Each structure stands twice: as structure tokens, then as C-alpha cells.
């Protein structure tokens, strides 16, 4: 969305109030004024679009994830605990693009542990998951699957299919996170038996791709 520079004359009290609210929201003075004017004049800003997406995500995952306080309109963070000794935490982050092109945003998943065995398990699961997602998306005609796997950290771009509105995008992200977290927890609960139930997770992901592409 194009932006231009304009000069405005505002009361000092107004500016102080704007600055305080901008600090609380983790944004800039200009961006907050832009949002306020856009809402007043019924214009859609990237922040409004991202808020609608995240509201939709929250509705779907609130019972399964602990959603963290947000300091940025473009970022949503949440976490869950694994049913494993010491109950390690899995952190999820979704960062949306202000102006989506090939991708609508990025998902990052990290395990909070220094235990090398847990990190190895995490990487083994996501190596499998990457192969599954890239293969099935390619069958759907999407060759732009982009991801990165480091020690205890998985990052992937969310594909923009250009077919969903903001509410549907939020639903798709929420369903993807829920499906992924369920698979992660099942794997960590009994990795030696995961292949016995792997088919149901692959079917669930295929079913999701019938409705949403991410």
C-alpha cells in the first residue's frame, strides 16, 4: 500500500496521547495516526487486515495454545508444552507480510531445550514433515514451498494462493498450526510408535489442502 509524506498541525496533548498509545502497541506515531484515520474513514490498512487474520487464528487455537501478548500488529506468538519428561515448551510464531505477494507470511517453530536428544527428535520430525508438505503441495501445482530447518528450529513460508479472504486465511493458519502441533505432540509422546499412526496425520494434511493452500 503506497504511502506519502504529509504535514499535520496537531495539539501537543494529542501528540502526547498518540505517543503513549503507540508505545503501548509497539508501533510508531505515524502508523498509529494512519490506523486511527483509516478506521474513522472506513479505509482498510495492512494492520486491520492482519488483525482480522489473527482474530480468526485465535478463535481456532485458543483452547490448544497459550497465546502470548502481542507487541506487533504483524506478529503472533504462542506456545504449548510437550507430554515429555521436563515438559519442554514448543514456541510458535506467525509473522504476516504487510503486502502479501508469493507468500502471506512465515511460521517459525522452536523447541526450548538444550537437550541434544530432544533437539534431534525435533529435527527428525520436521525433516519428515518438510518432505510431506513439499510433496503434497507440489502435487497441487505449488512449487514454491520454502523452508529452513536448523537445530531445534523450523521455519517455512506460508504460500499465498490468492484464493482466500482474510477470515479464511486466519482459519487456514489456525488449522495448520493445530494439525502441526497435534502431530508434534503425538511424535514426542511415543516416537517409536509414530509410524503406526502416521497415516492419519498425512490424511488430515491432505484434507486441509482440499480446502486451504498455505
What features would you describe in this structure?
The chain has 214 residues and is of the alpha+beta class. It folds into 2 domains: 8-43; 46-211. The protein is built from 6 helices and 6 strands. It has helices at residues 12-25, 29-40, 46-61, 116-139, 166-189, 194-211; strands spanning 66-67, 75-81, 89-96, 103-112, 147-150, 153-159. It has a 6-stranded antiparallel sheet, with helices on one face. It is globular and about 65 Å long. The chain starts with 11 loop residues before the first helix and ends with a helix. The mean pLDDT is 89.
Please tag this protein with its features.
50% helix; alpha+beta; 214 residues; 2 domains; 6 strands; 6 helices
